[in-house]
Each structure stands twice: as structure tokens, then as C-alpha cells.
Amino acid sequence: MRLSPMVLANAEEVLREILRFTAPADTTLSRFFKERQRLGGRERGAIAECVYAVLRNKAFFTDFSASGSGPDMRRLVLLGMMDAVGIGALPSLSPEESAWLERAANIDRKLLHKSMRSNMPKWLYEKLVAQYGEEEALALADALNTPAPLDLRVNAMKADRDAVMAELAQAPIAADPTPYAPLGLRVHKKPALQNLPLFKSGAIEVQDEGSQVLAQILGAKRGEMVVDFCAGAGGKTLALGAQMRNTGRLYAFDVSEKRLSKLKPRLARSGLSNVHPVLIAHERDAKIKRLAGKIDRVLVDAPCSGMGTLRRNPDVKWRQQEGAIAEMHDKQIAILDGASRLVKGGGRLVYATCSFLNEENDNVAAEFLASHPDFELVPMSKILAEQKIALEMGDYLKLLPHKHQTDGFFAAVFERKKMAKPAKEESDDAE
Ligand SMILES: C[S@@+](CC[C@H](N)C(=O)[O-])C[C@H]1O[C@@H](n2cnc3c(N)ncnc32)[C@H](O)[C@@H]1O
Fold first, then answer.
1. Is residue 55 part of a domain?
2. Deepest in the core among 94, 152, 244, 293, taking most CB within 10 A?
């Protein structure tokens, strides 16, 4: 069935705003839809898919659109809709527009020039090539320009993976176990899940497999004292609380009241009562000092460029400036230093990001080790063996979409040496 012409007009309007890159695309889209209650589910789906198709092919579409006619934004929308719903579903195309779209559809995008195929700002693509070499950089860029699958985590407090898979099949929703995360399911297609009894009862949460692996490698156990230092809306907190079987104490720190407030309803659904959300002012907050040297495991899921999530947020790369990466690096070092004070002798500290850039990953880990002789690196190969996760890694966890079908993630595990005394607290409360 063809879309109505007003869908194209709406797509043009929202795309124009999103391409200014002044706000995240998903925020702009949800505000736009909220203001247009008359748009139905199919129309919303087509507009959102069109916008994301343009973001994932911005370089190619911008270049190709120069060969078309009519207003710029209409040309981009037609190309986006071609990917989103197919040329046959587009209303009121002129014969020239149809022929033009057929030409675009027949272009093999793998044969485009690398600057167009990678669909990234030059500085970012150059960083990728420097890190991975050209061939792998292109494979990674291709994967980052492809939509992510929908992964679920089964809440072990409420269900097991096989039972959830069987219940989903009744819906009917087809899903397969994820290869690395023991409680993960990868759902075929993208069905709405919010109204499923499994979701309402807290038996499942939406979570990328890579994120699940990150929570797993902290190795949190029953009865332990654990801190999720950058808990945000609690994606990993929920996984950690369940891993601890709702025992011990799990502090969820964050500097954002708004993000922490999103954790509350998720906690209620999850059935966890061992989680204690704590709003902190910064990484040296006095609330943290009371716990210095007392914590078994600390997760620092640090604020980062978010480049590892480009499959979901393809606009991030166009909104970030290269200089922001260096600023991020300094912030990451400061947070990791603050969080390290919590760890007791023999305890573990995990530093993680959803980025694949060395500045935010290996470099931060190396600097931390160089300035904290009371910590040593625990090779990721050892951690993965402990957790029985079938992934081949060296010192660090480096998950990449073209290799592991997850978002891009990094993690390093540090252990505080047993003899080391808790960090002496300087009188720096007044900072
Ligand atoms: C990558 S996000 C965390 C995502 C979250 N762990 C999850 O799994 O959903 C990083 C978080 O760090 C928080 N943050 C930023 N600066 C911080 C600081 N100085 N101390 C603690 N948290 C901070 C941000 O508010 C943000 O929620």
C-alpha cells in the first residue's frame, strides 16, 4: 500500500531539523511525533526509518541527490524512503523521480569511494584507519552504518532463558540465544515489546548483548558490596543486581538526577531490593568517601563519545567534534581515579566505554595503571574464562559490531593489590 503524500511532507520537516545536528535525532523525532498525534503507527515507522536511512547514508545520498531535481529535502527524503519502505510504496512520484530512484537503487554501495562508503567525518575515518588499517576500518564503518539487532536480557530473578524463548514464540516472536551473553536473546525483526506480560513483569529488559557482557565481567557475587559508578538509567545496574541474586548492596551512583530517576520504574519492575541509587555532585563527592576502601567491585561505565553505538545513533558522529574526544579522555581519567578509591584490597575495578577509540580506551587504562601502582591489570582472557564467556580477547575486552554483532565496547579490569591500604583521603571536600 502506498504512503500518503503528507508522510513525505512530515519527513521533510523533521529531517530538515535533524540535519542541523543541534539535538540528538531520537529526541527530535519523539518530540515531533508527540506534537503530531494524528500520525498512525505505519506513518511514524516510515518517517523514522527514512530519517535513519538518510543518517546512515548521508554522504552517498547527499552526493547522489545533486543529480536529481526538485527541492533538496524532498530528494533526500525520497532516497531515505527508498531504503525505508521501497520505491513502490512512495506516493505521487513524477516519472523522472521514479527513474532517478531506480538508478540510485541499482548502485552497489560497497563500490562507492571509501570516503562516501564510510559515511563519517574525515577526522573519525582517519582515526579508524590509523587504528585498524583501511580494510578493517571499512568493514567496521559498514557495520556501524547498518541497524542494530534487538537484544533482550532475561532477568534471572524472574525467569530463565528457555522459558522466555518459549513464551516469546507463543506471541509469536522468534528469538535465538545470544552467542556470548548467557542471559541474552536476539529477537528477529523488531516487534513492540512494551505490552508483553514478560516485559511488564520485569522478566525481560532490552539490552545490547555487549552491554550484558560488560555487566557480566564485573563478576559481582552474592552478598558483596558493589558500586555502579556511572549508573545512568541503570541498564547495567539491573543486570548486576540480578547477578548478585538481590543480596548484598549495590550502589547506583550518577551525577544526573534525570537519568537516575529513569532507573526507579525499571527497578520496581525488576523486583530488586538490593539497589541504592545515590545522586552525586562529582567523582570526589563526600558521599563516595564514606565508602572508600570498602567495596568489592566497582564498575565505571564512563561517559564517552558513544561512537560504539553508531548503529543506533548514527547522528552522534556528525554532532561530535574531534576536540571533544580529548576532553572526554580527561574526564574519564578523573572519574576512574575517583572510583578507584572505593575499591578494597583484592577488589576489582572495571573501566568500560561504548567507544572504539584508543584515546578513550587503551590510553585511559594505561594512564590509570601508570599512576596507580596499587592496581594491576587482570587480563581479559582470564576474566572471560572465569565467566565462561566464549570470546577470544587479550588484555582488554574489545567488542566490535563487524566481528561480534554487538555495539562497540571496551573494558579493562584492574585488581587492587591485597596489601595496599585504602587510599588516604586528602582533605579535598571543598573541591
Ligand atoms: C555511558 S553512560 C552510563 C550508562 C549506564 N551505565 C547504562 O548501562 O545504562 C555514562 C553516565 O555517566 C554519568 N556521569 C557523568 N559524569 C559523571 C561523574 N563525574 N560521576 C558519575 N557519573 C557520571 C552520566 O550522567 C551518564 O549517565
1. yes
2. 152
Claim to verify: residue 292 and residue 388 sit in the same structural domain: yes
Residue-wise burial string across 279-306, b where 16 or more C-beta atoms lie within 10 A, e elsewhere: ebeebbbeebbebbbebbbbbbbbbbbb
In a domain, 425, yes or no: no
For residue 393, the SS3 value is coil
Q: Is 304 a catalytic residue?
A: no
What strand order describes the sheet that includes 175-177?
Answer: 175-177, 184-187, 150-154, 204-206
Ligand 1 atom closest to 215 (CA): 8
Spans of the chain, pLDDT less than 70: 419-431
Does residue 393 belong to any structural domain of this protein?
A: yes
301 is known to lie in a ligand binding site: yes
> Which ligand 1 atom lies nearest to the CA of residue 282?
19
From the CA of 132, how far away is ligand 1's center (Å)?
28
How much is the pLDDT for 196? Answer: 94
* Grid coordinates of 14: 523533521
ipTM above 0.90, yes or no: yes
Which residues are 188's β-sheet partners?
none
Binding site annotation covers 254?
yes
Catalytic residue among 50, 230, 304, 354: 354
Q: Cα 3 vs. chain centroid, distance in angstroms?
A: 32
Instruction: Enumerate residues lining ligand 1, CB below 6 A.
Output: 211, 229-233, 235-236, 253-256, 259, 280, 282-283, 301, 303, 335
**Same domain, yes or no, for 236 and 322?**
yes
Same domain, yes or no, for 215 and 201? no
Ligand 1 atom nearest the C-alpha of 335 is 19
Q: Quick check: is 265 in a domain?
A: yes
240 and 288 both lie in a single domain: yes
User: How many domains in the chain?
Assistant: 3
Nearest CA to ligand 1 atom 11: 230
CA count, 13 A, side-chain hemisphere, 298? 29
Q: Are residues 192 and 171 in the same domain?
A: yes
Give the residue, out of 230, 263, 350, with the most ligand 1 atoms within 8 A of its beta carbon, to mutate for a pocket test: 230
Structural domain of 223: 209-416
